[in-house]
Fold each of these.
Amino acid sequence: MATVLLVDDQAEDRRPMAKLLRDRGYNVVTAVNAYEAMGAYKKEHPDLILLDVGIPPMDGLTFLMLLRQETAGMEVPVIVVTGRNDENTLSRAKDLKVRELLVKSEFEPQQLLDLVDQHVRKPAAQG
């Protein structure tokens, strides 16, 4: 079972996304800030991260920058799910090799599921 790390400080956003992913068969680990997210990343080694940008006290893209500096964190797929749709956020996300960026008010649940399915790392072939 693939593990998704869901990082969002807003329970009204985090809970429905977590339920949606669990119902799809994913193991979901949640974090409400960047510090919890880093701890969860190191413990769980998720197959994909869903990341909000506005997670105080450190924003999500700063967390991602720190994660990308670690060897293991360089390749983990990240989908940003945010309320921000400004050029600076889009540019920073692109620089940090974010796979997708979804604006919270502009996507449907099925779109999120399709993107998660598409970007979850497939296990290496046993041989």
Amino acid sequence: VSIRHGGKKLSADKEINGLSLGAVGNGTVIEYVETYCIGDDGFEFFGGSVNTKYLISAFNDDDSFDTDQGWHGKNQFWFGIQEPAAKDSGSEQNGQPNSPDVIFSPASPISNYEVWNATLIGAGMSSTGNDALRIRRDNDCKWLNSVITDFGGVRVRIDDDGTSTPQIENNIFFKYRTGSNEDLGGIYAPASLNFDVDPQLGGVSRTADGTLNPTVQPTSPVYSYARPTTEDGFLTKTAYVGAFGQENWAQDWSALGHGGFFKATTVTSTKSPTVVPVTTASNADGSLATVSFPSVVGTSYKVQSTADFSSWTDETAWVSGTGTTLSYNIAVPGARKIFRVLPR
């Protein structure tokens, strides 16, 4: 779903977001949704427990992502990009509404949602009022394994330090204004677990010139800093920091894709062979499986697994074919796994 050019102003400081989620539960599936050129926030969560994957918030006038009122969902693969003329924070994160609404602190449930594998591109290092992660009252959110770059404001701002106790770890912060630390380096966003290194994105552009490319190359440092994903039936196992590895899941269906922003070569290819023969062998107690398959030079491969065919989990990153048989030892901790290998 691509939601475009919304955001009617109802009254002062009250506009309609791209997608507002009010007390939505985790039985609702919100995946592959884009908000594009909206007059307010791209996405705003008002309470509830909804989980999301594969969200795009592009060129929206306020925050890319906004949270309120004790929301406690899980999220993975968020992509946000802002432009200098109209923007606020990359993410504004409230546990309770802003004043002048009445505040009851501490009110439950406390916001404790998780965001894994986001890529947030701000409005540029010379922009003003463009904080990356702004966390307000009664918010115990987690931001993990994310790339946050090109913001002119503060990288991490915790307005109610102590009342809000977020966990901000294993993220890359790159291209930022000098002196923008604020709460980055403090107890909730330790410097030892957040890294200043070039993630080597394929290209950053805010015009439809075919050069926006949020994917990375196999040599990118995003593969060096990832925290192991907590596999719980929703989160997908990844070996990288950020919303993208080497394939662009936002390419074909989005306004960014249709409008000519993305680099055309970032689309997933359909190289032959389309089916890869896979052989497996287990050790004596069944806790480890060896997955083997023939490879072709010029084709990349990824091993995935499932228990019941309802969803597939990445067991490896994309690897380049060598012309020989490739083998991987994969843990099978007390449960069956069915394997497949994807080529591209």
Amino acid sequence: GVEGTNSATLERSSMPPVDFERRLKYLLDYPHGCVEQTTSRAFPQLYLKDVMDAGTDKRAFERATENVKYALDRLRSFQYSDGGFSFWPGGNSSYDWASTYVGHFILEAENKGFVIPNGMKDKWIAHQKRAAKNYNAGSLSNYRGSHWRRYYDFAQAYRLYTLALAGNPEMGAMNRLKATNDLDDAGKWRLAAAYYLAGQQNIAEEMVVGLATFVGLNGNYRNSYTYGSADRDDAMILEAMSIMGKRNEALSLSKKISGSLTDSRWMSTQTTAYCLMAMTKFAGENGVSKEMRFSYNINNKQKDKMVSTLPLKMIEIANYSSKLDSGSIALDNSGEGLMYARVVITGTPTKGEEIAAENNLKIDVKYTTMTGSSIDVSKVEQGTDFIAEVTITNPNSSEYINDLALIQIFPSGWEIHNTRMDEGPNTHEADVPEYQDIRDDRVYTYFRLNQYSSYNSGYSKTFRIVLNAAYLGEYYLPSVMAESMYDNRINASVAGQWVRVVKPGEE
């Protein structure tokens, strides 16, 4: 990576490793900010003090506290009038799964001593109780197809769990869902946890007899309704087992989740957050760790022996540089228990390494004058207004694509004209996105694509950004990318390039 952007951390743990440094950094650096992502960024940080030994450096805890406070404040802009939460700020409806997920975070944050914005929790509880009482899986599955019932029922089980966690169990709805017998094993674990929290431990225990303790699904699991994955559902089962005191039975599942977190596989924000949250809760609340006693040295520089009663210890490796062509870390475990170690090295890639790609998505990028004529942006005269036009197409004839993000980062020599600030209508605007975030040097556009059909043109959308070549010089135009935020198999990009802003008439 680029010199000066590098860092390295030694991670030692007495619980199955979770690659906390890398996975949490992914959440904190994630550029988008829908309601799910805002919640996922903060959720695992509620449990840092339960599992991590920061030594004399408390900055990690201070940052975690500030991040949780920011998320709670930010979530106010997502709360809809009915008490639920919309997908984007100021949305015109609440989103089922996200409303439950946010409420779960609110309850856990309050339990950790955080102050919840006035009225947020009460309005949310009222919304959840109405939704739980009015739930009718049959009518929903008839609307979208019977195969969706699994997701609707799972969402209802999660909603009922959060109501029980809030001390407001909806027993009638719980009994109705239990009686349908249509829940899969993950949903039964979630509903059993609701009964357990509601004081009905006998029913909870009866429900989980013979249930699988992990989700038997492979990488083809795909559902944007619950932002789900097999790993996320495994984490939800682990959480239920922790609540029900099934520590020994949960050990093998915790190792399975550990393997998922520590390998190189991509995880969505939801999956990452829930796996970290479930693992840290399991370790912190169940006391699976033993006292760690160890010493280490980096490049033969001896460090003092260390003792930690918490399962996770992060040690920053000072002065790490990508120019180092050699080095060593020596570790000595003087404690009684098994200990895991990882070294996490990070850096920012150099410019120009991007490549064009189209995976289950098509992208076309062109630059035009204000009247629509094509323009070569490798050299643009200073003061020129022009348009960046991006068209995204769904090549799949049988499938909708939800939760897409278009990422456009512009050179510092170009200025973005925010047409939303104009008084009159924007004559250059094409399709209207669900939400758009315009910043100093970049624009994030969020949308969805319908499946292709002869009567539906929503399978392709075009977005335009008005730009001005403001400052003389040579700059790098990064890759333009469109991607599904919850399925890494869907993405498309065009390579970046160098561009110049020149004086009028200059060759």
